[in-house]
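Progress report, Aim 2. The chain analyzed during this reporting quarter is listed below.
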Amino acid sequence: MSDANPDPNTKVLYNDQCPVCSYEITHYKGYSERCELPIRFDDLNTEAAHWGMDADVAARRLYVEKDGQLLSGMPAFRALWTEMPRYRLLARVAGWPVVRPLSEFAYDRVLAPLIYRWHKRRQARGVSA
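Predicted structure tokens for the chain:
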């Protein structure tokens, strides 16, 4: 597990072996640390079991636990962005009635499956992030 706060209200489970995931979450983590935000970032490759998840299932999308509620996909991103002042507007826009279903469709049907397949191909070739 990471970060000094052992039990923050917001926890993120992400795939550090995926270059796309790692790049994005490393940015959020750095921002969070600079702003001293109570967010913990866990790599699914070592922490999935602590989340009660299989690592392969966890690798399919982003997971955020906020105030004891487990969220995944775009709702997870919106919860994470809401915790970071720089991204609160993005969280609001992503939750607008017209944008919300479009962003969820794009994430669920296009981005997450594409990134997961790329991750599995990299794993099969023995390539790490």
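Confidence is low (pLDDT under 50) at residues 1-5. Strands lie at 10-14, 39-43, 63-66, 69-72. These observations will guide the mutagenesis work planned for the next reporting period.
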